[in-house]
TrEMBL record:
Keywords: ATP-binding, Carbohydrate metabolism, Kinase, Nucleotide-binding, Transferase. This is 3-oxo-tetronate kinase. Gene3D superfamilies: Four-carbon acid sugar kinase, nucleotide binding domain (3.40.980.20), Putative sugar-binding, N-terminal domain (3.40.50.10840). Residues 260-417 form the Four-carbon acid sugar kinase nucleotide binding domain. It comes from Caballeronia hypogeia. Its EC number is 2.7.1.217. Pfam families: NBD_C, SBD_N. Catalyzes the ATP-dependent phosphorylation of 3-oxo-tetronate to 3-oxo-tetronate 4-phosphate. The lineage of its organism: Bacteria, Pseudomonadati, Pseudomonadota, Betaproteobacteria, Burkholderiales. One of its GO terms (molecular function) is ATP binding. Residues 6-231 form the Four-carbon acid sugar kinase N-terminal domain. Belongs to the four-carbon acid sugar kinase family.
Amino acid sequence: MSKPLLGCIADDFTGGTDLASTLVRGGMRVVQVIGVPRDLNIADADAVVIALKTRTVEAAQAVKESLDALDWLEKAGCEQFFFKYCSTFDSTPEGNIGPVADALASALGVDFAIACPAFPENGRTIYKGYLYVGDVLLSESGMRNHPLTPMSDANLVRVLQSQTQAKVGAVHLGDVSRGAEAIVAKFEQLRQGDVKYAIVDAVSDADLCQIGRALMGHRLITGGSGVAMGLPANFRDAGKLSAPTSSAAKLPRVEGRSIVLSGSCSLATNAQVEAWKASSRPAFKLDPLELAKGDETILEAVEWATQQLESAPVLIYGSANPDEVKRAQRELGVEKAGSLMERALAQIAKTLVDGAEVRKVVVAGGETSGAVVKALDVKALRIGAPIDPGVPWTIGTAAVPLALALKSGNFGTEDFFEKALRCAP
Ligand code: ADP
């Protein structure tokens, strides 16, 4: 059995599948596991992605879980390590990007690593250290209203600097566009100036591929999935990875009913929920204030879905506009409003899989996906072809095989839910 080359630690579940999807597209065989596995038996894989749910937990907890994951990946024989976070740099002033990067760097004895969340295919570009979402700065995008990690500063050097004692610098597009060699030279210059983390500009896939090339031999990489685009070629050049094959993304068929669960309140997801309703498909809205009173609404949703599923797939959602989210958070607190909704959607998923022959589940929202996948006791995911950039169908290994599409809130076109169901395995 060959050893995996790349070991990845993702701070949420949709981030994990997004990264895995990029690596599969680059021709790597990828296994994604949910949480740190208990044993060391993984099938032949070129990369292993350990998906955690550490984006919004206490920093100390995120550090501990990430170090456990690193330990497992090192024992599995990986030679390069990737800390994957969101392409919108989702974090709070306390972390967790800085503290986790610090811990991983120190465990690996690394004095320099890049921080590059760029994902141009999905509109995330970095210019002079500032992150853009589409045509606007991160701080002017829908991310300013995120229920858990509102992002009010687009300057990533400043954002990361507030989360670490180590010095943060930047590699600007002028250097990136001159290619891998120029990027390597800039890395060296920054390292000489005691910079530990470099925010690296990228506005195109070509930039990301050059950055990827410049990362050959780096023990630790931190970033979004985009920067992983250039990594398979490094392993191929070193003779460690064979030529890409088209069968890497083929999934077996899954028979059963389909549901869509949405806990994301992002602009993109809210538009996807509206598009679903506009096409007169069945939809059930959950209100956190009702959920706080007891499990009545959950039972009601399950009963409604069980009936509807006789004839069509259903959507159950908590997704709401910023005013509604703020109202719920004022009454319940941010943490409680979020966890009530995550718990409800997770419980509904479990009940419908156990009792209503549901086998295909689309989930919108990173934290939400984490909660659903945990409730379904999914141990590992096999990654298929992308539905939209960054969102593949996957097959989950659980008590029964489940087809899962885990969508990061901001990803996907307006008709994403229908499109996903159309191309479900
Ligand atoms: P995204 O991928 O868009 O970041 P997440 O699932 O990670 O989505 O985060 C969204 C958070 O918002 C979750 O914790 C979810 O439970 C919470 N949430 C969903 N609906 C509501 C609501 N109506 N009011 C308050 N919080 C909500």
